[in-house]
Structure formats: structure tokens, C-alpha cells
Specification:
5-stranded antiparallel sheet; 387 residues; single chain; alpha+beta
Length: 387
């Protein structure tokens, strides 16, 4: 939920009429008075004027709009996206980015980079900050470069937040899992996009006397890349775990070194992550090259409570990555056109069923399954789906 009055966000948009091409796009508005399927016509100080399917105009008042509706308006999803951009072969950043010391008070030390604020419970040097901040800035840039309308723009005075803890016990108290290197947490505060928490040790930060040093291998920080990608995804797509987890793993498994992601060469590492123990020998799903999966319709319609059960967890994560890579690079002409339409639909309020119909694009679930199995078979992965 936004912490500022909504009318402040609308102030610059008084009496703006949406172009006809955009007004024809219907979405489902989830108001406190019920759901309504309509297209956006105008944003006013009182709310939004929409056109219903029966041709009637209706004012949806600001106070009745849901968080997703407000997010949709706030982020200006209709104003522009990068869906038409080419798929990147690589993504890299200039490692000479600025670091700002925001506050240094006992128990709370805040340091800023172009897109992140790092809130630490112990004081660390700029040299250490520079080393680990490049992971997060590089992950931001990678997600921004993927033509999926990720990495939403924050308020001018707001950055994505990363909370880092000297001791694992403090990390766990903040909501972290005991056996995890980092977690992404959704919540109204401290950021509407949620935030990532991690212990120092997951970044290779160690105490030497009174100060800290840092030493990590690039393949040791994949969990933080995964969790940061979750934070950078627009919230509308995160209710579909097969895609949310598949997309996060796609970036996680892409070879990374010194601020550069190599998307062109990520298929080998992705296959290794699914079938074996990963290129680093410890983060793979080890499903082998003979994989038995549930029906695609079942995999793609389960919710997070069902997805995150311990039963067959590696299979579900592996299947999510198989599906996501297929829709990015193997479906249709291999141009990700259907998955982009799927994401666009979710970001503009489509239901689960409607979004799946976009992915199917006139195909039956069996036809989609056959194409999926055939694609991976060409790479030596034999997939059998439950009848």
C-alpha cells in the first residue's frame, strides 16, 4: 500500500485523456465495491474514469482502488515498456558507480548506490560496499535489459532496499530462513516492492579485527541474484509461481562475472542447473536428463502454497526453469512473443485463465505439451508428462 496520499500521485495527471489505442485495452479493476472489467479513459483528482464493456463510463474513486490498481496507475504501465526491445546477448555495468554514505549511527548504517540503499547493522568501508553492491546493480541492469518490462522505476526519492546483518541470528530474526543465503520479503513497508535481507557471510563479508573485509566467488552469490530479481519483477506476475520462480532462476543461472551477465551463453548453465548440480557443483536440481513431470496445466496453475511444499520441490523449480526458458527461446518463432503478451496481460489486470489462453494462443494443452517436450528433446533432455 502506498504511504503517500494517492492524489499526490495524480496531481500531474489532472484531466489527462488516455489515447484511443490505450483506452481499448480492458483490464479487471479490483475495487472495494467489487470487480469490474473496463478500459481506462481518464485520470482525475477524484479517481479514474473507465469505460465498461457495455459502453458506459464509470468513475472509480481513489479510495476504492486496490493496491494492484494503484500500482498499475503509479508505475504508468501504459506509458511505455521495453517489450519491443531485442533480447540481450549480455548485460554489463560501469563498475565505477558512486557510493553515498547516508547515515552512520550505531546499529544502523545506510549506504546508497544509484538504485539501492543498503541498510547494515555494522559499519563497513566504501571498498567493501563497492565490491558487493556491484552484484545488485548488475542484477538491476540485467533485469532492466530483458524485454519483459521488469525493474520498475521507483519514486525519485526512493531506492530498492537491501538489509544486511553481521550475524546470521539477526538475519533469522528479521525473517530469514536458517539455511538460506538471502530472502526477498514482500510487504507494505519499508518498500512497496518489498526488500531483500541477507547475512554478511552470504556476501563473503568477514570481520578482521575491528573492520570488515570481503571475498566471494561469483558463483557463490546466485541466491542473492535470484532474490533481487524477485524484487525487481512487477508484483502482478508474482502470483504465478512457475513463471516467478522460473524467471528468477533464469537470471540466477546466467553466467555472471565482475558486473557482466552473459545471456548468450546461459543455456549450458541452465541445463546443468536443471539436470545436474549446476556449474558450481552445488546449486543444481539434479533431475538428470530423463525427467518426469506433472501435466503442464497442473504445473502452471498451482499457487505458491502448493508450489513451496517440500514434496518434489526440486522437480517444481526445475520445471519452472524449463518452462520459462522454453517460452523465452523455444516457443513459436523463438522470439518470446507469447510470453511477452502473457506478461503484458498480467501487468494490466488479466485473470489467470485469460493469461493462460494468451500463452496457448489457440493451442490445446496437449499441443503445447508436445511442443515443449520436442524442444527440450533436441537438447538431449527427455521429458515425460503425466497423462
Amino acid at each position: 500500500m502506498f504511504t503517500k496520499p494517492l492524489y499526490l500521485y495524480f496531481f500531474l495527471f489532472l484531466c489527462i485523456t488516455v489515447p484511443l489505442s490505450q483506452a481499448s485495452m480492458q483490464r479487471e479493476w479490483n475495487t472495494s465495491q467489487g470487480k469490474i472489467k473496463a478500459s481506462l479513459i481518464e485520470i482525475t483528482p477524484e479517481g479514474v474514469c473507465v469505460l465498461t464493456s457495455d459502453g458506459n463510463s464509470k468513475l472509480l474513486k481513489n479510495e476504492t482502488l486496490s493496491q494492484i490498481d494503484r500500482h498499475y496507475l503509479k508505475e504508468g504501465i501504459l506509458e511505455g515498456n521495453n517489450f519491443n526491445d531485442p533480447w540481450p546477448t549480455e548485460s554489463k555495468i560501469n563498475l565505477d558507480f558512486p557510493i553515498e554514505i547516508i547515515t552512520e549511527k550505531p546499529g544502523k548504517y545506510t549506504y546508497g548506490t544509484p538504485h539501492f540503499n543498503f541498510i547494515c547493522d555494522a559499519k563497513i568501508t566504501k571498498q567493501v560496499i563497492k565490491r558487493f553492491a556491484q552484484i545488485f546493480e548488475s542484477t538491476y541492469e540485467a533485469n532492466r535489459n530483458l524485454p519483459l518490462n521488469n525493474a520498475p522505476v521507483s519514486d525519485k526519492d526512493e531506492k530498492f532496499k537491501i538489509y544486511l546483518f553481521e550475524k546470521r541470528e539477526s538475519f533469522i530474526q528479521a525473517g530469514g530462513l536458517p539455511d538460506c543465503d538471502g530472502c526477498q520479503i514482500w510487504g507494505e513497508e519499508p518498500s512497496k516492492y518489498g526488500y531483500v535481507i541477507a547475512p554478511f557471510e552470504s556476501l563473503g563479508i568477514k570481520k578482521n579485527g575491528k573492520s570488515f573485509s570481503i571475498n566471494y566467488r561469483d558463483d557463490d552469490i546466485t541466491t542473492l541474484i535470484h532474490e533481487t530479481t524477485h524484487m525487481l519483477m512487477r508484483m502482478e506476475v508474482t502470483d504465478q509461481p512457475w513463471f516467478s520462480e522460473g524467471a528468477a532462476q533464469y537470471v540466477e543461472c546466467t553466467p555472471y562475472r565482475n558486473g557482466r551477465f552473459n545471456f548468450k551463453g546461459n543455456k549450458r548453465s541452465i541445463i546443468s542447473s536443471i539436470t545436474a548440480d549446476g556449474l558450481n557443483g552445488k546449486t543444481g536440481r539434479a533431475l538428470t536428463k530423463n525427467i518426469k513431470l506433472p501435466k503442464l496445466q497442473d504445473l502452471m496453475t498451482i499457487n505458491y502454497d502448493q508450489f513451496n511444499t517440500d514434496q518434489d520441490i526440486d522437480m517444481k523449480y526445475g520445471a519452472a526453469l524449463l518452462l520459462t526458458y522454453y517460452f523465452y527461446h523455444g516457443d513459436g518463432k523463438g522470439d518470446a512473443s507469447r510470453i511477452k503478451k502473457f506478461i503484458r496481460a498480467l501487468q494490466t489486470g488479466a485473470s489467470l485463465e485469460e493469461s493462460h489462453q494468451i500463452l496457448l494462443d489457440g493451442r490445446s494443452w496437449k499441443q503445447l505439451s508436445d511442443e515443449f517436450v520436442k524442444f527440450w528433446g533436441k537438447s538431449g533432455i527427455k521429458i515425460s508428462l503425466n497423462a
